[in-house]
């Protein structure tokens, strides 16, 4: 009996996505009481951890930089599905949901996750070492995508307000998708070495979590890929289930509607945050930065085209242009990110600067 219990506990990453899928099917589209909300929230946290576990197995099988790319794209595709679903049911109230969620994803990844990765690495090794070429290329792509998709709508004049005209939205969608596809090609085909961890003579991996437990078999990787996708679907689905309680809770404490997008982005990006921090603990700073900037890039490069296509049947307005405060935060993020990336090495100071910007973003999101 004890052996059976031990086996079940050791395979929780296999069973929990399946249990969460059943829970999602039972609660989807229903008004659930507070006790069930608590159960769903607990399942949500557990399935996030399961998603990270299976993503690491897949990444170990396919190698880098493909591993971090798979997790970033998988999470973003499901994030896009969640945004479209909530926009369809939200009416005019959801006009800024896509903008708020994508901007929150950029701030979380480029400041929150990057700051945590540098913090963990600097605390363990004094200096975080990474590849400036690959990281700089990723940051430049994120900055361009964010400007084309979320800054320009504030200044265009073809349509009143911070909105694109249909032609402008189409151009932004095509440009975003093309630029993201170009980056993926460079990352995986032309210059993959620019996105691999940097070997540094002064850095020794003394963690008690060994990075190599033997390469998984193809069958094990396929099973983990399927379970990872199921887990990510459950993450977004369960987040949607608890979103009514989330929205009412946000409204009851007097927070603005834009805070909903921030919470959604934080929930969806939790698997990547955990995976990035674990990579930093293993002296694989570059992998953590790949996850962070790759997620920001995918969030814009995949969301904008899908939202542009969804406007065919969406009846409400689509506000993509950032406000003045958001543009200031974006500009500071790009400048500070560039200064962090150029040396290829970072200390506690750089991590503190990024985390300070992230804290400012959270504070201003709650108190604009």
From TrEMBL:
Boundaries of every Sodium/calcium exchanger membrane region domain copy: 35-188, 224-364
Pfam family membership, one: Na_Ca_ex
InterPro entries reported in the protein's UniProt record: Alkaline_pH_Ca-Antiporter, NaCa_Exmemb
Keyword Acetylation included in the entry's annotation: no
GO CC field: plasma membrane
Gene Ontology molecular function terms on file: potassium:proton antiporter activity; sodium:proton antiporter activity
Cellular localization per UniProt: Membrane
Membrane-crossing residue ranges in chain numbering: 12-29, 35-54, 66-90, 102-123, 135-155, 167-186, 220-239, 259-277, 289-313, 319-341, 348-366
Entry membrane topology: Multi-pass membrane protein
Keywords: Membrane, Transmembrane, Transmembrane helix
Main localization category: membrane
Tagged with keyword Membrane: yes
Protein name: Ionic transporter y4hA
């Amino acid at each position: 009996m004890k052996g059976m219990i031990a086996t079940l506990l050791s395979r929780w990453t296999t069973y929990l996505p399946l249990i969460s899928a059943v829970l999602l099917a039972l609660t989807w589209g229903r008004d659930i009481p507070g006790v069930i909300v608590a159960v769903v929230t607990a399942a949500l946290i557990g399935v996030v951890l399961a998603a990270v576990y299976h993503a690491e197995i897949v990444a170990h099988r396919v190698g880098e930089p493909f591993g971090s790319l798979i997790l970033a794209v998988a999470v973003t595709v499901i994030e896009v599905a969640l945004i479209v679903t909530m926009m369809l049911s939200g009416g005019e109230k959801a006009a800024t949901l896509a903008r708020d969620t994508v901007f929150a994803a950029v701030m979380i990844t480029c400041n929150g996750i990057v700051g945590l990765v540098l913090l963990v690495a600097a605390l363990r090794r004094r200096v975080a070492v990474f590849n400036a070429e690959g990281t700089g290329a990723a940051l430049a792509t994120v900055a361009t995508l964010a400007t084309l998709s979320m800054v320009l709508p504030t200044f265009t004049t073809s349509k009143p307000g911070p909105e694109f005209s249909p032609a402008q939205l189409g151009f932004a969608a095509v440009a975003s998708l093309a630029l993201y596809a170009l980056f993926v090609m460079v990352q995986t085909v032309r210059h993959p070495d620019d996105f691999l961890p940097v070997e540094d003579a002064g850095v020794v991996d003394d963690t008690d979590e060994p990075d190599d437990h033997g390469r998984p078999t193809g069958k094990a990787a396929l099973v983990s890929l399927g379970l990872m996708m199921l887990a990510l679907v459950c993450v977004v689905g369960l987040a949607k289930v608890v979103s009514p309680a989330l929205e009412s809770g946000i409204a009851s404490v007097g927070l603005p509607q834009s805070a909903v997008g921030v919470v959604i982005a934080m929930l969806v990006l939790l698997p990547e945050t955990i995976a990035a921090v674990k990579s930093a603990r293993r002296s694989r700073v570059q992998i953590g930065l790949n996850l962070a900037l790759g997620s920001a890039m995918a969030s814009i490069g995949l969301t904008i085209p899908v939202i542009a296509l969804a406007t065919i049947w969406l009846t409400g307005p689509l506000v993509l242009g950032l406000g003045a405060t958001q543009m200031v935060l974006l500009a500071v993020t790009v400048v500070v990110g560039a200064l962090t990336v150029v040396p290829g090495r970072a200390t506690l100071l750089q991590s503190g600067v990024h985390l300070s910007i992230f804290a400012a973003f959270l504070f201003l999101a709650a108190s604009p």
